[in-house]
Amino acid sequence: PGRRRERKKVTVSPLDKRLSAAAQTGLAILVLTTASAAGALEAVAVTIPRRNLSKDELLNELKTRQAQMALQQAKAEMERARAEFDETP
């Protein structure tokens, strides 16, 4: 009695806060910034409609979407390069 117990502060990173909030609402918006061949920055918002995702599930989903978009972008770049090559005399 008389002695105050110090409560241990748990620090939560802003990313963790956003991820858990996103997991709870079932909507995660990931802004991917990728440099295209032209050097322009493209931001893509990804929404995930599933509800009650754990943080790990959410991260996996985001990584999968990120990989899919990177693949699509690479294919588009390849098509552009191929078209330019075909036009070259």
TrEMBL record:
<keyword id="KW-0175">Coiled coil</keyword>
<feature type="coiled-coil region">
    <location>
        <begin position="55"/>
        <end position="84"/>
    </location>
</feature>
<protein>
    <submittedName>
        <fullName>Uncharacterized protein</fullName>
    </submittedName>
</protein>
